[in-house]
Design goal:
Blueprint: H1 6-20, H2 29-36, H3 40-52, E1 56-59, E2 65-68, H4 77-85, H5 107-125, H6 128-133, H7 136-155
Antiparallel strand pairs: 1-2
Helix pairs in contact: 1-3, 1-4, 2-3, 2-7
């Protein structure tokens, strides 16, 4: 089976959650972990990768948290995979720095390369604003979960 990693799935879910919220809304890692059912330690690593890639930004202190660093329309699924996985390549023979002795005229490598190009082009067109717009019910679920999480977390006493 060819598939995306759990880390990429979690990163896309995290960015989609933020894209569903009003622009500039910040959430903490514990909040988003709880609301989106993501393990907090894993979420921290993903957030670090997404911040490094310029997809998210963080703010410390009161009112701090994470939010999108650019509009949802400027973030694609390919951006997420580039940030978390280092890109999309369907076969190791297509990775730079590892020359394949059969690469000249290899029909299999050419087919993998064409498939990789198609996938990359498609993922580049799937932006988070369109993912939000494609399903108003999904957006409402995010907003409802966010509101529920804010109430739950805000009503709990702070524990150091």
């Amino acid at each position: 089976m060819i598939g995306i990693s759990r880390q990429s799935d979690y990163a896309a879910r995290l960015v989609l959650h933020l894209a569903c919220l009003p622009a500039g809304t910040r959430v903490t890692i514990p909040e988003i972990s709880k609301i989106r059912l993501l393990p907090a330690p894993y979420t921290r690593r993903i957030v670090a990768d997404l911040v490094k890639a310029g997809i998210l930004q963080t703010a410390r202190g009161t009112g701090g948290g994470i939010n999108l660093a650019r509009p949802a329309s400027a973030i694609s699924l390919l951006d997420i995979l580039d940030a978390v996985e280092g890109g999309v390549v369907l076969n190791a023979c297509l990775e730079g720095g590892k020359p394949c002795v059969f690469s000249q005229g290899c029909r299999v490598q050419r087919a993998w390369g064409q498939a990789t190009d198609l996938l990359q082009r498609h993922l580049a067109t799937v932006t988070f604003d369109t993912l939000v717009e494609d399903s108003p019910e999904h957006q409402m679920a995010h907003l409802d979960r966010a509101a529920e999480g804010h109430k739950t977390l805000r009503s709990q006493p702070l524990v150091s």
